Amino acid sequence: MREMARVILESLIVVVVGTGIALVANVGSDVGLELRRNYFKPVGSRPSVPTADSSATTQPGDQAATRPAVQESSSPVHAAQGSAAGEVANKVEKLVKEAGLTPLRHDEVAALFHDPQYQSDAYVFVDARNEKQYHEGHIPRAWRLDHVNPQLTLDLVQPFLLGAEKIVIYCHGGDCEDSLFTAGYLRDTVGINPSILHVYTGGMEEWASKGGPVEKGERLSGDITTGGAQ
Amino acid sequence: MSEQVGRLRRLDATGVPNLVARLVLGLAFLYMGYNKTTDPYGFLKLIREYQIFAPEQYVWMNLVAIALPWLEVFCGLLLIAGIAVRGTGLVVLGMMLSFTPVVFMRALGIQEAEQKAFCDIAFDCGCGAGEVNICWKLVENTGLTLLAALLVWSRTTLTLTNALAPKKTSVK
């Protein structure tokens, strides 16, 4: 009995010391988490930067006033219906619309990608996945910026974001919401006008599966394959 | 019956089963824990998919995502080094007995949603080894649970603790 009590005490010490080590290691890590931050906080609707005409009638946070107008400007929903993948895609697309942002389909993203404006940085693509996934393959010229650790790349990307006419954000695809959370971060923290923020809900998985060019390694590495699988 | 128990005790007294158990468990936990430490947000997303925590309990969810990977690494190192083996074994046993039913329940949920045979289901359970087949995972977890139980109940030998303090923990 006494021996068992000793084992239980030993196990408690292991848990306490292990948790302590974890908290210290987390603080020292570039990819550590903030204990008190809600990483999955719903991205609420916010108005576009008010113009002289609209500022008198639209109050910040007045979701009911802004949502219908934003939804009218949204692109058509995904064609995929019935299948589980289609349901997931539609669910994410619904969340994007509810946040007052614009979802994009693959053909719309491809058109922006091939537009000369993309080469001149008027259109900016943002990959919201982690560094490892980005290096495994991203849309050529896309910047990496995720909402979890934006400080890692924001200084580099911010000038391009502030000068952009359109910003397309994507993550893995499927039920991935990181593109939505990153869009919310750019809107709420960086101050990007939501009217230029677009979310490619099909994400990298759809881009690669439909034969879109994929760049490996760093941005502008030149290591580009067409139709490369993830 | 008593003869079989006697044999098992003699086998245990050699310290070999204990050594094998803690090395297998130690390496497994070190590997799976380390994989999770490299992408804590990815692990957090997988925890969220289990829907154990309500959305407003995000601090607890973050704490699990921060603490669990490093706790697994710590337990792995302790087991390999042979320090506090029985206490660590109890922690590992507690983890295995908590995780396995949760993984099983999630697999049942996936089975219901995808209408597949149970053993055809493969998903990333957040265990640290990426996407795995559920039946193989349950067999693996059962094995690890038995090894952890062995560490808790075994009369330990061949550990660093015994080498440093032989009188307190020596075999009877």
Computed structural class of chain A = alpha/beta
Envelope shape of chain A:
elongated
Helix count from the secondary structure assignment of chain A: 9
N to C succession of SSEs of chain B: HHHHHEEHHH
Biggest sheet statistics of chain A: 5 strands, parallel
CATH architecture of the domain at 84-226 in chain A: 3-Layer(aba) Sandwich
Kindly estimate the percentage of residues of chain A that lie in beta strands according to DSSP. 5-15%
Number of domains of chain B: 1
What's the count of strands of chain B?
A: 2
What spatial order of strands do you see in the largest sheet of chain A? 1-5-4-2-3
Biggest interface, which chains?
A-B, 34 and 33 residues
Please describe what this structure looks like:
The complex is a heterodimer of chains A (230) and B (172). With 230 residues, chain A is α/β, with parallel strands linked by helices. Chain A is built from 9 helices and 7 strands. Chain A has a domain at 84-226: 3-Layer(aba) Sandwich (Oxidized Rhodanese, domain 1). Helix content of chain A is 43%, strand content 11%. Mean pLDDT of chain A is 82; it is low at 50-82. By secondary structure, chain B is mainly alpha-helical. Chain B has one domain. Chain B is built from 8 helices and 2 strands; from the N terminus they run H-H-H-H-H-E-E-H-H-H. Chain B has a two-stranded antiparallel sheet with strand order 1-2. In chain B, helix 2 (16-37) runs antiparallel to helix 4 and helix 3 (40-49) packs across helix 4. Chains A and B meet through helix 1 of A and helix 3, helix 4 and helix 5 of B.
